[in-house]
Fold these 2 entries.
Entry 1:
Amino acid sequence: MSVGFHELEEAPPPMTSRLEGELLEVSMGPQHPSTHGVFRMNVALEGEIVRKLKPVFGYLHRNHEKIGENTSYLGSMPYTDRLDYFCSMTNNWAYALSVEKLAGIEVPERAEYLRVILAELTRLQNHASLLGFLLSDMGAWGTPLMYAFREREKILDLFESLSGSRMMCDYMRFGGCRCDLPPGWMERARKLVDGFPRFLDEFEKLVVSNEILIARTQEVGKLSAELAINAGITGPMLRACGVNYDLRKVDGYGFYPRFKFRVPLGEHGDCYDRLMMRVLELRESVGILQQAMEQIPPGPIVNPKVKLRSFRPPVGEAYGRIEGPKGELGFYLISDGGSNPYRYRVRPPSFINLTILEDLCLGHTVADVMVILGSIDIVMGEVDR
Amino acid sequence: MIGSGVLNGMAVTMRNFIGSYFEKDRLITVQYPEERETLPENYRNFPFLIFDTDDAEAGLRCVACKICEKECPPQCIYIVKSEDKKPDYMGKPQFYPATFDIDISVCMSCQICVEVCPFEAIKMDKVFELSRRERFDALLMRKNELAKSNTYYHNIHPLEAAEVDAKLTEAAEAKKKKT
């Protein structure tokens, strides 16, 4: 049936939306280049100003927790790599830590030091690539991202020669690590860590005093300390609001109390503070790495009492958490004495940090939404699980 | 002064651009198909089965105990145990896998099968150029495709293979002493 001319005229004008009379509803994503994966935002716009924002996620959901309940404790370890595929080492550590808590397993000293080293290397590469992505979201296409990826590549090469895989490391085991360092690894790592401040100096010169960057980030996406605490925000995002909360200091897991480092704090909680927080944390991480590489003792790498096959922890529950590069990463396990957990729950930092996206974006322009989203530092593999 | 930050950034870009001609550190790109980096010793990608001696059938170390099949997180291994026994490379009658398939389109190279194997029969390979035109059958590796010799293992993981060989000979000698 053809549509008559009068019907077309009576149809509502295309620029009104279902939501509210004058707002324009735009669906950003899930294939938007700067949403960091398959993330979608339903944005209601008044001109260019965001008036409503509804995050839609779940496109990458793959039943991680249910799979964890149906495979053995060891079998979940490679799956944790796929949560936040940028920092598989810290995911491994958080999971190993909660199983060790559950079963009361001791970890040899060398393995603990190695875990600290690997976690801090992960932080280096995660923050470096985040800075690159954030700048490319702002329109600094390519250059800073490539500089950051160049450093990340060197760290991934180290991971590859240690664990066999660049990103899906699957390196830690309950009660230690899988294998000892290959010959010459420590020298390479030391060289990389000593050369890292040069990259940081250059990167700071490249972006930090850049007027365009300051105009784009300062006073954008301000987060108050009160809201951050109420919403359960953790990691660099929380510290950018001036809340002194770092699990490395609070929990003192691993051997972190043995190292001297400071926790950088922001003041305004805007995007610029969040960006600078990463740069400052990188400097502290370099310090931790240098101390850990000096102190690491020889010795066994894994607790020989832990069985690899038919591993059955006693009945109970445990929550292990670490300060991942993105925030507090926790695993909650309930054991009924069987070979697989009764309940397996992940507390993903980027998912919980993402919940306040609307509060940050209201009143800003569409272009700022991308910057704010970039500064939250999300990985959809972890958000959707 | 307004604009000095931008100019400073430009100077860094310039230094990187010129530096990339002189410093290996600033240009780490490898022109892949023509230029290749040697893989590190620990590199792992997809499991394979080891056989000793020259005969891929008779020398297979696998005794079809099915531990790897059970422990594999994505369940990509499929084993059928043989009905009869046949002498393994040490002369002891053992079961052998009548069928041993690994679906490498499912495998995630986690190395758990290698770690749980009590017979040092399954190890990680280093192949990575495995693209195929067909989607299903071509990526289902059968026993004859998976079986690779101990010499091959020595070639790809020299340090680890030497360790494994020492362990095996030690176990064989300890057994000889007992009998």
Entry 2:
Amino acid sequence: MSQPSGAAILVQGLIDQGVEFVFGYPGGAVLPIYDELFGDERIRHILVRHEAGAGHAAEGYARATGKPGVVLVTSGPGATNAVTAIADAYMDSIPMIVLTGQVPTSLIGTDAFQEADTIGITRHCTKHNYLVKDPADLAATIEEAFRIATTGRPGPVVIDIPKDVQIAVPSQSRASKLTATHRYAPQMVASAEQIAEALEMIANAERPILYTGGGVINSGPEASELLRQFQDLTQSPITSTLMGLGCFPSTHPDFLGMLGMHGTYEANMAMNRCDVMVCIGARFDDRVTGRLDAFSPDSKKIHIDIDRSSINKTVPVDLGIVGDCAAVLGQLIAAWGERKPQDLGEWKARIAGWRARECLAYPEKSAKHPDMIMPQRAIERLHALTRHKEPIVSTEVGQHQMWAAQYYGFESPNKWLTSGGLGTMGYGMPAAIGAQLGCPDALVIDIAGEASIQMNIQELGTASQYRLPVKVFILNNEYMGMVRQWQELTYESRYSNSYSDSLPDFVALAEAYGWKGIRIERPEDLDAGILAMMEHDGPVIVDCCVASDANCLPMIPSGAAHTDMILYGDRVDGTMDDEAKALV
Amino acid sequence: MKIATAASERHVLAVTVDNEPGILAKITGLFTARGYNIDSLTVADISDDHAVSRITIVTNGPPQVIDQIETQLERLVPVHKVVDLTAAGPHVERELALIKVAGKGEMRVEALRIAELFRAKVVDTTTQSFVFELTGAPDKIDSFIALMRELGLVSVGRSGVVGMMRGLKSV
């Protein structure tokens, strides 16, 4: 019995790929793999409480470390529970390997116990997926899966492994078909002509803007460094999408903040009025562009993206460059040479005018609840009191997420973990757990809402089990706040099912799981509560009760242009026509 | 409110892929998921070792959508190459059809006469029916079927379009 089984080959394959952690949950169809992991010191298995938690934890780990996250779940419900996280990783281009157990090959297609068509279900939310029917194919499949997940535009790859394939040994006679082929080779660098053309456009721009996104982060820390150098050469104003926050320091005078639906007035106005837009690793998402026919009407557009299908998908561009952000930025910097930047004084003066509008200013007190903490204030204080630790911040999805993006400034990449594309509530806590494992010395904070946090609240147990000192900072406004805000804007304040009724006592809940629980109710207790959270050497839930009527502004309403932002002080309640209602 | 529509054009795409399980589902699913159209689709393996298949897809859509279809197909790992034959230049399109016609007397004679004009082959016959085999460009087959409709058309099977560039170039 010297021949390794499929399960042994799999575990060895993971070790060869440098895997430190596997986030998973056992079940019938993966028992052979779990037995192989038993007592193996080389890989640490993190037992989650629900497979969605495993997926998001792997995402958080990947986003914080730049290494692929690995998930191991059983067949049927194990796999289907992981699907939301897989779709999330697909939308946000997160490298992830998901190993799913499958019923034995002889039972596939018979509606066997815990059988689901995992390959069929995940076909359109993975970068690639495999059903491995012979242990002889496993080693090559794992090698290729990691390569596909981590190179080019990163993404999730599913490997579905029937139980008998985990137990069997490869037949000597059959060599793998996969080994010889190196079939996935993304284009990394731009042609010299494209670089020259781009440089000509950028160097002659009077009103340039750099519009950066998650692609810069995915390209690695070097890309963020090169972006800083390139901005320094061109002196161009720069904005970032939600996913790109941290790729450029928020405190830099030329940084305009986030753009898009809840972006800053100055970023959106500059996007609208620029003459040359350089999109680097972003994808003209609908949250970013607003109304397409009014999107930056007078600009020449350059789009740098590793995925050719992102170029000209929604916004036609003048120059599309397929390549890796770091590689192309390096080429642009080299080609820039000794040039001097244009005098952009006039352009920057206009931007300063928009900045003076102070779009992120908010009322000191809520109209309805003058004694409550303003949620924006809570994030500002959290930032002020924690920034020296350069924490990793994850979020759930909703108003708190946008406030975190607006008021928590990031100076470096891989510090900001959020579900941007899919907008998955319940992402933040498991992502924080994954990030904390990958970065054990970092302060990791999940900025949450009281509704979102309940979507994966079971993962409190995971953090307790592995002694992970994650901090969950809940902005509790007793509403699914973003839904409530939209109902106010679009449906004449008919708050259909958006009130968070029957909330748990979060402090008691924290204590039930062995966490520390802190409740902050009054503005004067805010700083002390945050400091107490940081001082505790272990996981903490902070239930920060905030004014329930605060809206997330500025905002570009559905179907509006960048120039039609709602700012504080504007009247926002009312109803909309059907065309606007149909937009999300 | 109105659902928006845009003017479309017809394109023939030749796609070479790894002949592996699920690749056809990946491609057809991509079209459904992103709301693209498939007018016809043919597939068969084309290499000695059965490792590579060629898929010909006839689709229609606005130019921007056609470009997206091409790039989205190229994103799939098992896809080697996508060539838009319509955009690439002169190319040949052929389709095979089997057409069954039933009738007696003058109708039967007329069906056979028209079949000869179209160079259709009779591949099966009874005293009351023919099965014609016809290859050609899709519009030729369309007009043959239209004529047969008046002469006792019973059933039609069509292969969908297979296409190839004219001249020396591969694809």
